[in-house]
Amino acid sequence: MKAPELPIVKGVVHCPICTHSVPADVQYVGKRAKVVPGQKCARCHSALDAAALLYLQLAA
Ligand SMILES: [Zn+2]
What we know:
Helix content: under 10%
Low-confidence stretches: none
Number of domains: 1
Mean pLDDT: 89
Bound molecules: zinc ion
Number of helices: 0
Largest sheet: 4 strands, antiparallel
Radius of gyration: 12 Å
């Protein structure tokens, strides 16, 4: 059996490097949301793998 596609939504995360809130793609894994790996901060271009999720942009 193949794993189902995980839904990706837009969210806002807290960059640990520049301490700004930046938009990023967030992926649901079960009931938990986590930052999609491999993204870069829009401000400082650091990897957002360790960024903390602030909230999701649920509006389309
Ligand atoms: Zn940053």
